[in-house]
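Appendix B. Raw example, untouched.
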Amino acid sequence: MERLHPGVKWQFRFGGYFFFCTIGIFFGIYLFATLGVIVLSIVGISDSFIIPIILFSILVYILFAIVVSEVYARMSYNRWFYEFNDDCLKLERGIIWKRYSNVPYERIQNVDIHRGIIARMFGFSSLMIQTAGYSAKANAEGYIPAVEISQAEQIRTFVMKKITRRK
């Protein structure tokens, strides 16, 4: 089984940062607007301590988000594998719940190579191997998030030869 390009860790990190920013904004507004006012009025903390408490809690949340995103990025990278066999593509991924997929070449319709801004910065490509009968809107069934640019072209050529032979 082959591993992903190491640059994909940054893509995983940014995904974690985006997740925590979104959650932090929604829950932070709710907690400070409702619970914070109630707790501060019950405890009786003076107004001069409110701003430092809010800033300290934001700093703690940012540090928590960075640490958790880093752990997520490393664990995701270490648990993502793919392999091209004679008859199918095998994918293995997942941190807590492992997901194993086999994508037979008979079902493959197209292979797309995608290079987003992070991928261009770190020198990798994402492969989207589209199959017949798969209706997921987020990713293709045979999605490989990061391979070397030259290797992506070789994989695309290999798979396209496999699917044109069967026709």
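End of appendix B.
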